[in-house]
Design goal:
Layout (H helix, E strand, L loop, with lengths): L1 H5 L19 E3 L4 H10 L3 H9 L4 E3 L2
Parallel strand pairs: 1-2
Length: 63
Amino acid sequence: MRMLASLDGLPSEVRESADLDNLDGLIIPGGESTTITKAIERDGLAEPIRSLAARGRPVLGTC
């Protein structure tokens, strides 16, 4: 988050689907992929993230 802010970005944490509404893009941080996927699905974010990408917003997942 600090790196994005140092590049004049406005990073914010996504905790619920409404947090995705006004983003220019999304970076999903690295970690164990099964755990990250389960958390995304548990929190109801899978479909909203797909929708964000379908609207042309960039989505980057790191490892």
